[in-house]
Amino acid sequence: MLPGTRARLSCKSFYKLPLSANPGYKVITCLENGLWNHPLFQCQPECGKTTSYGLRLVTNGQLTKPGTFPWHVGIYRKKNEMMYEQICGGSIISSNLVVSAAHCFYDESEQKIYNESNYAVAAGKLRRAWDAEERNSQKSLVESIQLRSRYYGTRGNLAEDIALVKLKTPLQLSALVLPICMDWENIYEKEQLHVGQSGKVTGWGRDTNGKSTEDLYEVTMPYVTFSRCQSEVPKEFRGYITHDKFCAGRKNGSSVCDGDSGGGLCFEKNGVWYLRGIVSVSPVKDGHCDYDSYVGFTYVSHFRTWIRYSYVKE
To answer: How far apart are CA 90 and CA 273, in angstroms?
Structure first.
């Protein structure tokens, strides 16, 4: 590089400068010693932004439009050498990290994590089927699955029901595949997890007929106080609302079910969406999901230090 050469810096599409790290310059110059006069700055992924591209869980919800929730992924388990089946959902927090529920990856009988080679992740999908032809979908095998050391499955009433999934192939960010924002400093939680506030969940869970939905749905779920939740859910379910859970939902048939587990409950603030909860547990009625009860979500904020360690490390 010749001395005096000037270069204009910018972040590539779907990346931005951190607000706390704006360098105050956009042009750098090559010096006589071959070094730039300013260091290159680090860009980070855009997050929590939605873009709808036309009409396109979750029970009695509505069809999700492309780009509405670009952070939602399907968690797939290997059915045979050629095929995967969708079992859970998850939320992208970086190009190679997904947050989901621990019980999606836990062998209750052996009390250990299933091998990561059994799983794959698909982003940018509206159709449930692994092999559905979708131009904007991206797929990756799983490199590693991390659970909390004190997660004991149903023996522990699903406390600490959270998982970090590292992808073998980083996602290419776009308007249809983009991370959800993490409120690392927990600035907005009190106003978002408050009576009168509602979040959104997306998924391919079973409908009221017990059949898995083939199209991605979304449902609005209002926050419910702990006392109201405890007083209105079935008695045998109350123990599952552990210290790291909160409740949300309506008792009107709009709920989540098998296949929605691990999906994110997200709340919007000034046009930006934040991950607040992870679909964890809901009551059962007559052997099926109880669509007229509240749902227990894992508090993301309770584990943000743990998540951030992996986020920064990667």
So the answer is: 15
